[in-house]
Amino acid sequence: MRSALLAGLLACVACSSSWASPAPKVSIATLAQLPTPLPLPYDAAADATSDVATALARAKASHKLTLIDLGGNWCADCRILAGILRLPEVAAFVNAHYVLVTVDVGHEDRNLDIPARYGLKRLEGVPSLLVVDGHGQLKDAGHIAALADARHMTPQGLADWLARWTD
Questions:
Q1: What domains can you pick out in the chain, each with its CATH number?
Q2: How confident is the model at residue 18 (pLDDT cuts 50, 70, 90)?
Q3: Is the pLDDT of residue 164 over 70?
Q4: Which own/partner contact pairs does 33-40 have at CB distance under 8 Å and 24+ positions apart?
């Protein structure tokens, strides 16, 4: 009986990614099909602390996750991610599940207090995405820099990553 229960729990943990909302079907197959010029989503003059606080409050009130996008306009992978996020089908998915806030981290030398709140002493690359739940807990620990090589991913792969956390 105990072994059957343990096997069931292990199977449940193994399939937990299936609890996530299905990713949107992305309308483009390659990154070369993204509209150009790619967006410049990061505002160096923004008050990142205030923007993040506002996003966290909006997400909690609307029962969504907060997606904190840490990057810089100099970063090709950050701009590629921004282009994917602006595709209508991806934007609709993100709007349904997340409150998105962009934070300019310069060359990883600005606004580093934001990731530090979640125990990150340094960024492993940009873009770094913090997926924060309504309790202020980081959901994607260990995976925040997974999209730092976005230029070598497919558009669908990027959308799949975003869907992974929406359980």
A1: 21-164 (3.40.30.10)
A2: very low
A3: yes
A4: 33/155, 34/80, 34/83, 34/84, 34/87, 34/155, 35/83, 35/86, 38/76, 38/79, 38/80, 38/82, 38/83, 39/79, 39/82, 39/83, 39/86, 40/73, 40/79, 40/82
